[in-house]
Amino acid sequence: MDHIDFIAPVHVGDLLILKSTLNRAFRTSMEVGVKVWVEHTIAGTLRHVASAYLTFVAIDAQGLRVLVPPLQPETKDELRRYQDAGRRREQSQQERDRKKSARLAKDS
Prior knowledge:
alpha+beta, 4-stranded antiparallel β-sheet
């Protein structure tokens, strides 16, 4: 899981609905966005309670990475999610590089 935002509490007995979208397919991985909703069946209302970004890596039977087919965004919303996923990936890589540099500097 790359990131999760807890927006509101969930209580025992709440009915949860998870809605997901494939935001972007990279070379061997893909980002999936997930929104979590609580449905109050008596009132007939939905309340957004959490959002998360998950990255999955495609592997074969031997555990080796395999290519995933590209995702071509078609709507404005799909294009926005696609571009946002690219920015998140770049930021994650920059953070990994920063931490690696800090570790190397500390060990020197």
